TrEMBL record, chain A:
This is Annexin. It comes from Protea cynaroides. One of its GO terms (molecular function) is calcium-dependent phospholipid binding. Ca(2+) 1 binds at G26, G28, E68, I254, K256, G258, A296, T299. One of its GO terms (biological process) is response to water deprivation. One of its GO terms (cellular component) is cytoplasm. Keywords: Annexin, Calcium, Calcium/phospholipid-binding, Metal-binding, Repeat. InterPro entries: Annexin, Annexin_repeat, Annexin_repeat_CS, Annexin_sf, AnnexinD_plant. A pair of annexin repeats may form one binding site for calcium and phospholipid. The keyword Calcium applies. It comes from the Eukaryota.
TrEMBL record, chain B:
Transmembrane segments: none annotated. Keywords: Annexin, Calcium, Calcium/phospholipid-binding, Metal-binding, Repeat. This is Annexin. The keyword Translocase does not apply. PROSITE patterns: ANNEXIN_2. It comes from the Eukaryota. One of its GO terms (cellular component) is cytoplasm. It holds the Pfam family Annexin. GO terms for biological process: response to cold; response to heat; response to salt stress; response to water deprivation. GO terms for molecular function: calcium ion binding; calcium-dependent phospholipid binding; phosphatidylserine binding. PANTHER family: ANNEXIN, ANNEXIN D4. The keyword Chloroplast does not apply.
Amino acid sequence: MATLVVHEQNPSPVEDAEILRKACKGWGTDEKTIISVLGHRNAYQRKLIRQAYEELFQEDFIKQLESELSGEFEKAVYRWILDPADRDAVLANVALKSTTPDFRLLIEIACVHSPDELLAVKRAYFSRYKRSLEEDVASQTRGDLRKLLFALTSTYKYDGKEINKNLAALEAQVLHELIKEEAFSHEEVIRILGTRSKAQLVATFNCFKDQQNISITKSVVGDPDDAFLEALRVATRCIYAPQKYFAKVLRNAINKLGTDEEALTRVIVTRAEKDLKDIKQLYYKRTSVSLDHAVANDTSGNYQALLLTLLGSEDH
Amino acid sequence: MALSQDVDAISLSFSGFGVDEKSIVTILGKWKPEERKSFRKGCEFFSNDDDRHFEKWNTDHMAVLKREFSRFKNAVVMWTMHPWERDARLAKEALIKETRSYDIIIEIACTRSSEELLGARKAYHSLFDHSIEEDVASHVDGSKRNLFVALVSAYRYEGSKVNDETAKSEAKMLCKAIKNAKTQNPIENEEVVRILSTRSKLHLKAIFKHYKEMCGKTLDEDLEDGSSLEKAVQCLSSPQAYFSKVLSASLKSGADEKTKVALTRVVATRADHDMKVIKEEFQKENGVSLSQKINETTHGNYKTFLLDLIERAA
């Protein structure tokens, strides 16, 4: 369930645009207003606000924000205000451009989204970068990691609930044999993960657990620095239990000495309108601390205020 | 009319591409029992060596007849079907029928636009409850698998922006891969597969141009004849030349069914797209127009239907 709190009665997009304009113009910026407006609007409403702002003031609201805000707060607002598909395209491009591409993000986009959502991300990527997502994934990665990432991002999986139980049992067996031999990057592993539908893979992973008494993620073990193994684990987690995966990302982001704001922002901004509530529950179950509390302790200022608003925190 | 002339006309109407329905109706419909008996006794379509000495229709020829009568029906169905459903069904058939024709998969993956290929993949979901890449991955094995899965999964950028520097360096990579063909089959070279399956078609044209400047020959000349890689490159660099070749092969005398069936497919799938250019290529390659060749080689409603489809493009 979503954590975003959207009130029943809202000002019209035009009114919102005017309020935001006032918050940005003049000396300094009224961040609180920005947070209280944008933090309570869903993707469609945010889009209408951007359009209204452009029509009323002949300026791009996003550019305005970029010039008025700074730091982690600015990054978070920028990501929040974009269309979900556009946002993921931007995140993917950022991930790919860095010297060691952040494959976690790419796998999240490929495995957690539905096939049509992934398609929307690819289209947004065309628009923004004049290249296909797959082109860039393929040219910026190498070796086994490339095989896996390319397979996961280029596929357009079957979206339905139909599964073949025999096939699931068979492929669970195949995966077990290959994992036993530590042939983790074998073609068959990549074929199965990269082409089978989500429903089919869940059935396969369940068969695996039934057959081997251990979840598939836990059985992919080896050198902790091996990036490919980590990618494989991320992929299986995202397919099998995405909320648990995100709760873990959040735990790691907050536990560190210093906070991993990139990851914290990413999870909260991308899941607030989807399943952040479930993720919060899993977070609490695992740490006995509410996510709101943990975020409040670890962050400050406007950045904190925005995150807490998106988390649906009570006084925000 | 002399019986022997009629017999010749009927034999002709039953043999070859499609069936001459008109002759069958006008001539055959008029024959009395004795004339039909004469036909059976003298005609190669029947065998008389049964123990009980009756003139039996050869089972092989029955099969041929069934196929030829269906040709018109197949053309009509293929023409009327939604292009996405059509491509999805063609792909499925190419994977599972006994006469495995993986070429068709390359054809579909490389000559359709990004949205058309995507549509075919959606249709495939609805029709077969699997994704096309699942089925391709589980049916095609060995060194071809990676290329095939990558090609059907492609969702290429279709805009006009091309980075010429990248095109040059990727052409160089291809040159190198071809030079090393003896040590590693280019189809197994990850970079080759990456370039061919992810780059936009305009970008690929730029790469092929640079390749020719760097290595002297065009890329498909340097690839093994008849290989999947060669076909993919042909489909990506000049689909019309590729289709013209397929048509030439299908219209040659003595072509087998697998080759013949391409005639219906190419005409039905390209009539609304680039048939005009395909016709020009055909004329260049064969010295005769496509319409003329079809007129000479095919019969009946099938012939009329094909000619109409081709003429639309004029």
